[in-house]
Amino acid sequence: MSKRIQVLDPLLANQIAAGEVVERPSSIVKELIENSRDANAAKIHIDIENGGISSIKIKDDGEGIHREDLIHAVSRHATSKIQTLDDLQTIRSFGFRGEALASISSVSRFRLLSRTKEQTHGFQIEVTGREPEILQSPVSHHVGTSIEVRDVFYNTPARRKFLKTSQTEFNHIMEVVRKMGLSHFGIEFVVKHQQKQILSLPSAVNILEKEKRVAEICGENFIENALRVEIESHDMELSGWFGLPTFSRSQSDLQYIFINGRVVKDKVISHAVRQAYQDVMYQNRHPAYLLYLNILPEFIDVNVHPAKNEVRFRESRNVFDFIMHSVKKTLQHTRPTSVAENKIEPVEIATYARSSDVSSQVSLYSALVNTHPKVANNAATLSLSQKPLVLSSECEKNNNHEHHHDIPALGFALGQLHGVYIVAQNQHGMILVDMHAAHERICYENLKKEYSSRKMSMQTLLIGINISLNKREADCVEEKSELFKKIGFIVEKLTDTAVIVRTVPSLLIQQDIEKLVRALIGDILEHEITDGVDEAINRLLATMSCHHAIRANRQLSLLEMNHLLRQIEKTDHGNQCNHGRPTWTALSLSDLDKIFLRGR
Ligand code: ADP
Ligand code: MG
User: Fold this and answer.
1) For ligand 1, is residue 144 a contact (CB within 6 Å)?
2) According to the model, what pLDDT value does residue 370 have?
3) How far is the CA of 112 from the centre of ligand 2 (A)?
4) I want to staple 411 with a disulfide (CB 3.0 to 4.6 A). Which of 33, 424, 492, 536 is the partner?
5) SS3 string of 17-67?
6) List of domains in the chain
7) Whether the CB of 550 sits within 6 Å of ligand 1
């Protein structure tokens, strides 16, 4: 006979709901911090024992809970944050489902103390058995809320078995706090484990304080190698820090995405970022970034997952494009500025951000570009070898910024080292440039520009070049003849196993064309490149520039070297070659002094 249907006992219902919300102690910490944040707390102190398995205490200085609402706080489907379904459309708080405290208190020994600013005392509620119990006597408590959660899963042994060691559970808790810390700079966080202070993040308001917090959480190295971004469109706002391509990682472990302050995993955004970096990073490397997207709540649905770590965009294409272009633009500005180290500030982007120090950079930058077009285009008219001496002595006398405008960021070449590096000097010290890497980047950017303006300049060969290939390769040439034409090659199939090259891109006229065409065919076959996909075309352009780039051991004149320096300064992504390796680095005089232990 079939069993009869019964309404679930409330405790059991809460425990079942807890299965979704409370996976482990860190999920409790996450829910409690979110509640404190929703109550506008400025300080959140977290005290953990035994990885949170024995005890989690969280104290905040938020708005508190009214005495009469205590019972609702721990009841399922009770929330102060929404009243109608429409409210969900414009939700700005973290909570809204009204089930976290009910779930948590159903699988632990739970106590909550709270006081609102209207009350002179705090009140408390305990849930240790079946029924919540409000303790009638007032307790002394500051305005705000304290919550104690002890013996997690004590009454659900099956789940308790899944808990890991205290250290592992604590690591999960720290990851939760780090994410909250990275998205709520204004809130002070303090974490203790076994009564020992593990983390202390004072409230961070200005950009310097924020960067200090980022350094504390993600490492000094990250912030020193990151570009700051702040860009707005009419309905979205992007900000954050993006690691330089040279700071890439072998894992995607330093990538955080926050949407309206909520940490999320989101494919639309992570793909957009990946695509933006693609041009400047090896395929198997991962960029490091903290990305903050603010978007009108109407444009997203946050209620797609009980733990709310996913969102759905109403117009994901818009979001993708906005993120991709913004990040790409930022990375383009990794060109040399007058900063002594190879730590580059975004030029145009930064005008949105650090207005004060950036305006001087922008004028410096335009001064560089505008006062030196001659150097770049017609280097022969300058007597370069004398210039650095004159300039550096002038700068020492007069430490005025105006004078620095006269010195290009990468300075002037002194000579060549082992046919591989250019040694140059600017007013700060010494610059070393990897000739091949730099030249490769310059060619690549030029080819991209020519390609995208559909004005690839081509040159017809007096005598065509015959290349013998296998059948598959020859077919590829025939099939992709339009694609070849777009990148500057007219290649025709002669026989089943031979082709003839009639026209080549002007830039590459001096190169070993046969070798290059073979490499391009290899690329097309290996990566199944088809026409009309920019990334695919870029791969071919990269191969072309790699073949064109100055090989090691080619002697350059000082003029040629200076010409190259001026070109790097003008080139998008000038600081990295196509594979994300740096093209140049700097050693300031004080760096050199340190090496030689001067002034100690
Ligand atoms: P939700 O956050 O979805 O509303 P919760 O179960 O997490 O549901 O919390 C229930 C209610 O308890 C909240 O709506 C809020 O009114 C109150 N509350 C919980 N924690 C705090 C806190 N730290 N400070 C003030 N109010 C709180
Ligand atoms: Mg909540």
Assistant:
1) no
2) 37
3) 14
4) 424
5) HHHHHCCCHHHHHHHHHHHHHHCCCCEEEEEEEHHHCCEEEEEECCCCCCH
6) 10-201 (3.30.565.10), 207-332 (3.30.230.10), 358-439+553-595 (3.30.1540.20), 456-548 (3.30.1370.100)
7) no
